[in-house]
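Worked problem 6 (solution included).
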Amino acid sequence: MLQTSSSANLVDRILGTKLETAAELIHAVRVGLPVTTIDALIGADRITTAEVDHVIVPRKTLANRKRIGTLTPDQSDRLLRVVRVIALAEETFRSKDKASIWLRRKTTALTDQAPLDMLDTNEGAHQVEVLLGRIRHGLAA
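Solution. The predicted structure is:
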């Protein structure tokens, strides 16, 4: 399990990995995470198939990757980005359910977009992470 922070531990749990270091996680992303990690994320009610289609990998491409068994490095990186933000939201709100609601609710702090909808780009994910940091420190509601 990654030892860098409690959110890293949650990322590890969500992905169902037993990675010991950040270097191992980087390597796993570079070689491609198993497609089953997406199924696990959906099965844990952390993301829907439609959301996967929007922010990680299109359905048709996902069907092709299922035959191969692994995601591409880019797809793995997008998956990790989404998992990291979900983990940070769950840590911030101390509740899977509250985090889920917050991630899907439009907010003026993100130009009337839902945080989850912004995770299709690195900059969007960064803005969501900044907002979560502000919430954690009592600077944003």
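Discussion: The mean pLDDT is 88.
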